[in-house]
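request received
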Amino acid sequence: MNSLYKNYIRNSLILLGGASLFSIFLNVMDIMSERTSFAQEQEAWNPYLSEWSQWAGTVFVIIFVVMGLNTFLHYKNVNKKTGVFIKQLPVKYSNDFLFRTVSSIIFIGVTLTVLCIIGWVMYSPYFAEGENYFKQMWDTAYMTFAVMVLFYSIGLVSQQIIGIPLLAICAPFAAFFGMLGSFIGYAAMPYAIRELAIFKIALNIMDKFFEFICFYGKINPEETLLIIWSIPLFILAAILNSKIDYSNMGKLFLFRWCRPVVYVIGSLTFAFSMQFVVNCFEVRSIAAVIVTFILSLFAGFKIIQYFVRRFD
Amino acid sequence: MIEIKNLTKCYGSFKAVDNVSITVPKGTIHGIIGENGVGKTTIIHCVTGVYKPNEGVVLIDGENVYDNPNVKARIGYVADSNSYFPTYRVKDMVNFYKGIYQGFDEDCFNELNTVFALPVDRRINQLSKGMQMRLALMLNIAIRPDVLVLDEPTSGLDAIAKKQVTDLLIKEVDERECTILISSHHLSELEKLCDDITMLQNGKVKYQSSVEGIKSKVKKLQAVFSSPVDLSDIEGILNVEQIGSIYHIITDNYTQAMERQLYSKGADILEEIGMSLEEIFIYSSKEQR
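response:
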């Protein structure tokens, strides 16, 4: 295996290590706070156990962030100064693309497995005997794997078209998650659910995403179907990869039309996402919703503008 | 041997390089000069296989470069600014190169490092610009390339390091018959180093010849006129500077006909003055502006 591929694996392993440490930290904090609050009372463990499935949500969010970072690292390698260095190396472009794609899919699987094992090791002492949590965990893991592979394939296609699509489009989400963490998770909600609230809302968002991908429930969200959907996208990405010669290397957008598309999609996504926040405050007035929508549309535009100016 | 044939490269609708042809014979040094943005780096990116030409071909010993690992393995490329992985240490980069280039000669790298003295445990992002340039040179010479492409190789280097680099390049050509393509703004260095020069203007070749050939084409004449004259009607004059009755005339078409025209306009004295490559470059650029 050549040094370039080893470099990709090294980056992925660093991310995997980071994700694992983060998940251990989250769970240790979780378990410690539960122990402090409920002491020895067996009964008190029940709500804790019932919430265990939130672990899947935690994994989902962690892997989403990690995949975003992984894609970003790959982007950095392909489209920036380092990209010029990589392009000059005696490595066939198609092999480079294939290796990055396959290694990323393996990386998703490995990350998921490691996170599940961590979850299993940390939570299994609290499971009632005979309950089949293990199977439930792996079912969730498979669902997460399928969705992530689809997300990755979408990301890869758009990466070929737009220089740094994930960062630009996900910028409003980053801001959104940040706001949730600071305003809602730690201020508006009671202490007992603070830690879990972020993941509940994150899961809600993912559910909406999932519905969107599946045409709002018209197609049954079978996990395997998602993986099958990914295949033509991977092929499309490979074709695009072979067509683009990276003359615009270092530019944020490889094509001029990508800029308005990112602004429009990003601002709208942010504005719609902010409706979750509005719902949290139980705003019922249509006028208030419209005003917050317009305001968040503007805010989304400014956030994307910040990222575009920073990276273009 | 490097053969660039009718190379055209566009960025969208902008034509950065327009129908450029350059041939660099084996074991020679060829310099590309021109103002910022005339397409020097674009040509270099095409030669190193980073960009795919829109038209024309780039051949190394008869083989196409783009997406051809076998050819690219024989090309060393020193970019104008660091593009290595910033968190890698120098020794990591050596290992990286060893894993990519089969011909990488670690002994050669170590030998070069006795001259350039780079700290191998230091990370790339902790190296100064000059140190990064030295590292790039050492790595790319250690792969024992047949073709070495250098984009501003002496930028950020002190005078001693510049001399070391120049000596190193000459040694590579002498001992291994390495073919070198250099783009640089340090024209006095190129003048000493290069066998041939290509001067670009607006993405096209303006002059292409040996250094002496360009010097013999573009000339500076010192003429003394007893009264003021208008020389704008004489063809081939790039620039005229007047100090009193003395006129400094730059021309790329000095013929007997021009000489006769100057005398007919009242020139009392006419003599040729030697020009450096840098002066030729400056006057040619002035003409364009």
